[in-house]
Amino acid sequence: MDPIELDTNGQEERLLNHQDNNIEIARDIDVTVEVQLEQPLQQDPVSHEFLSLVSLQVTINSKALAIFLVLFGHTLNSLNFSASIPVFGPIVYPLFRLATAGVGVFAFLSGYGLTKSEEKSGLDGFFVKRFSTVYIPFFLTVVCYNALFKNVFHSMQTFKNLLKMLVLFSDPTNPLDGTLWFIPFICGWYILFFIVFKIFKNRHVRVIVMFIIGIAGYVVFCYHNFGNWQMPGLYGNQMLQIPIGVLFATYEKSRFIQKYLKDKRVGLPVLFIHTAVFVFVYWKYIYLDPWGRNMKQQNFNNIVLTGMNILFGLWVPFFFTFFVKNANRVMDFIGNHSYEAYLIEGILLSSPFTQSQPENAIIFFITVFACAYAFKKVYQVVIKYFVLGANRVTEKVSGIYDALKTRFNTKAYSRL
């Protein structure tokens, strides 16, 4: 408490005037009490400050790195670096598995973002929001770009494949664009998330149920025979990322996570160990054998890939939280157009210019993000008119319902 300085020039007067002295003493007591009350109020926000585990800027940066790795991995497979560059190619080619790890980042951020969105605004408009931001861009991409690059309207079979692709869950072996497997995966999780959070109100129960679903999905996709379908491994190896995102979003205010974020003496050693474990797993079990041919059991291969996705999916946002919190124009542009780039890259990947020389990989990256930028401008207009139209339809339906309800009540009252 700061000392209260009294007016020394008036001390003699206060000694002569007992009444004035009492007034000054009472005033000093009031000021002292006010200072004592104000001091803890000024200190509390600092000592109890809450730090978000994944801020908006961290999300953008994480998405930028994740989509870069996805494009990088798909490009390595498409260009076949091992054959194109005899010396350098075999060194770089095993890194294509980082594309799967990049998808794990998107899955973790989705689970985290869904939970924080539910905490903020509940489940009101849940499917409308996801439909407008996820399915409409997907629909426009599949229809427009496949029509331009794959002539889907020139053959009845390709047109049927297009329709099946738009249904999402009808044909997982659709040959039009296998890179878009993540769209039905995440849409399925949207439905499961809504059901779980609608039924269960206790946050601990929600986390437990989400993990039960994730583990069950991992077992089904990784250990069940799906015939010719090549995607179950990709689905199974990402099944735990959404529940982990829900877990961290639910408990990020806990003392342990807040200590991890605030105290670098705790956070940096944990992040260092996290990095070392990921590098060890990737080098020993993936880089030296990226296709898992030397592994004695396929089950162990699934465990390794799932562990890699979990480690990397957590590592990327944690890294940006500690070291890169500021905005960057390049990262912002890539991160804000990551979804559009993901939708487009699979279609452009089959173009001739991406399969001739490794130098064309640079052209491929530039083309993807140029198309993503233009595409986002277009579908934002479509979404705007879709929302306006949906609101008008809702208003008309609501008006018709109110009119019918009023008429029914009037007739019922007249009969009485």
TrEMBL record:
Acyltransferase domain boundaries: 63-371
Xref: InterPro entries: Acyl_transf_3_dom (IPR002656)
Domain of life according to the entry: Eukaryota
One GO term describing the cellular component: plasma membrane
Subcellular location per the Swiss-Prot or TrEMBL entry: Cell membrane
Pfam families: Acyl_transf_3
Gene Ontology BP terms: enterobacterial common antigen biosynthetic process
Keyword Iron carried by entry: no
Membrane topology: Multi-pass membrane protein
Residue spans crossing the bilayer: 95-115, 127-148, 180-200, 207-226, 266-283, 303-324
Molecular function GO labels: O-acetyltransferase activity
Key words of the record: Cell membrane, Membrane, Transmembrane, Transmembrane helix
Alphabetical list of PANTHER family matching this protein: O-ACETYLTRANSFERASE WECH
Protein name from the UniProt record: Acyltransferase 3 domain-containing protein
